[in-house]
């Protein structure tokens, strides 16, 4: 594989990458604490060195992390490639080693796709000068799910310190195929840290597989987190962009695509915040018959619709949805005004959505996602200097029932 081994001061960075990427949770049943100020301590407490992990990691992941490579992408010289696409193309099909693509600052106007046969890729930006991954693809051009600026189809993908943007114009309700995805995640065991995912309608296609989002910002208008993923969103801000025309049907956060209670999928949002410039925001709508979405310990601004959720104008779906809230706060958290089909969860009912192995993560997939965690790397990686170690420890989808 093209790439270079790290020398000099960067040896520290590589060692750090290996030690952190090989971390794995030892205790996965300990619930996320109710006190947000304790979340980082909780998180650090369940992440242990490899030698303590036992058999929590997939053998293929352990093997992949033994000799990671770093490939540098820099605009204007100084790296091995000047585009992200070229760096990805340099990774061989059937890749079995961790490849960290370190992306320099700047705006990269590229339509980026990581195919299924290229697992173990990390896209890593500088947290102080995050690169912009931007493109203006639309559903009319590519189909909705393939309009994404960044598409990750491979397993064990990690994205950190990235601005992922679809710059297509905001849908006006008249133009057909104006949906524009910023990020589609279709691989299993993928994680995103400190990423901004920005668009309007259909911003994030959380398509399928087990995914983990931490310390992210997701921005959009309608159905802007949608798909059949099984995902935990921890400490992630949801920003709902208002409609200049004031159309209340243009503010929906989730459109989860579960179609049967037998499907073990869903979205769990924990210790996040819902804010923005919209009004009467729905936390989710029943795009498909049996969506499962839970918000726990979430701060909800007054932009949230009193009813909270929508059956998508199909009353029969009130019997098949699983929409839950647990100990949420803020002016938008109003249990007394919620639709009758919304569950105000008990401690016991909420617990599966507050652990890394639970109702929507019954396999060890999230354990393996967290083995590729790079929390410290998010703040330390930018300069790779040892002396810094201590300083940084859808107008109802256009009134349509189906997505294109």
UniProtKB/TrEMBL annotation:
Q: Where is this region: Disordered?
A: 381-404
TM regions (residue ranges)? 12-28
Domain of life, per UniProt, equals: Eukaryota
Identify the main location.
secreted
EC code(s) of this entry = 3.1.1.11
Q: What class of enzyme is it?
A: hydrolase
Name assigned to this protein: Pectinesterase
Q: Which residues form the active site?
A: 223
Q: Where is the composition biased (Basic residues)?
A: 391-404
Which PANTHER family does the UniProt record give?
Answer: ACYL-COA THIOESTER HYDROLASE YBHC-RELATED, PECTINESTERASE 63-RELATED
Which stretches are tagged as biased composition: Basic and acidic residues?
381-390
What InterPro entries does the annotation carry?
Answer: Pectin_lyas_fold, Pectin_lyase_fold/virulence, Pectinesterase_Asp_AS, Pectinesterase_cat
Residues forming the Pectinesterase catalytic domain are 72-353
Q: Which GO terms describe its molecular function?
A: pectinesterase activity
Catalyzed chemical reaction(s): [(1->4)-alpha-D-galacturonosyl methyl ester](n) + n H2O = [(1->4)-alpha-D-galacturonosyl](n) + n methanol + n H(+)
Coiled-coil annotated spans: none
**Pathway where this protein functions:** Glycan metabolism; pectin degradation; 2-dehydro-3-deoxy-D-gluconate from pectin: step 1/5
Q: Fetch the Pfam families from UniProt.
A: Pectinesterase
């Amino acid at each position: 594989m093209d790439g270079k081994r790290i020398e000099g001061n960067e040896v520290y960075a590589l060692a750090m990458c290996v030690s952190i990427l090989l971390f794995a949770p030892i205790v996965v049943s300990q619930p996320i604490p109710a006190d947000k100020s304790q979340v980082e301590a909780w998180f650090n407490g369940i992440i242990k060195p490899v030698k303590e992990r036992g058999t929590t990691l997939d053998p293929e992941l352990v093997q992949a992390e033994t000799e990671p490579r770093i490939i540098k992408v820099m605009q204007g010289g100084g790296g091995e490639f000047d585009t992200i696409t070229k760096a990805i193309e340099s990774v061989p099909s059937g890749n079995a080693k961790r490849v960290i693509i370190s992306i320099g600052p700047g705006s990269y106007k590229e339509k980026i796709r990581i195919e299924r046969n290229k697992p173990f890729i990390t896209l890593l930006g500088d947290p102080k000068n995050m690169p912009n991954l931007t493109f203006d693809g639309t559903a009319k051009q590519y189909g909705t799910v393939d309009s994404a600026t960044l598409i990750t189809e491979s397993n064990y993908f990690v994205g950190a310190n990235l601005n992922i943007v679809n710059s297509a114009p905001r849908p006006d309700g008249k133009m057909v195929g104006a949906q524009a995805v910023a990020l589609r995640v279709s691989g299993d065991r993928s994680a995103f840290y400190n990423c901004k995912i920005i668009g309007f309608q259909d911003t994030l296609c959380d398509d399928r597989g087990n995914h983990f989002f931490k310390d992210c910002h997701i921005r959009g208008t309608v159905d802007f987190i949608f798909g059949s993923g099984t995902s935990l969103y921890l400490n992630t801000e949801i920003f709902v962009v208002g409609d200049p025309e004031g159309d209340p049907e243009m503010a929906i956060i989730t459109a989860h695509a579960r179609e049967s209670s037998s499907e073990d999928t869903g979205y769990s949002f924990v210790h996040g915040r819902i804010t923005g410039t919209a009004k009467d925001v729905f936390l989710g709508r029943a795009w498909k018959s049996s969506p499962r979405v839970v918000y726990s310990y979430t701060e909800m601004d007054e932009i949230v619709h009193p009813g909270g959720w929508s059956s998508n104008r199909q009353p029969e779906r009130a019997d098949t949805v699983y929409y839950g809230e647990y100990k949420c706060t803020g002016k938008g958290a109003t249990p007394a005004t919620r639709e009758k089909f919304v569950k105000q969860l008990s401690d016991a009912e909420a617990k599966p959505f507050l652990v890394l192995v639970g109702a929507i993560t019954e396999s060890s997939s999230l354990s393996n996602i967290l083995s590729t965690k790079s929390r410290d790397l998010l703040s330390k990686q930018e300069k790779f200097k040892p002396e810094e170690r201590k300083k940084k420890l859808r107008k109802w989808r256009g009134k349509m029932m189906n997505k294109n």
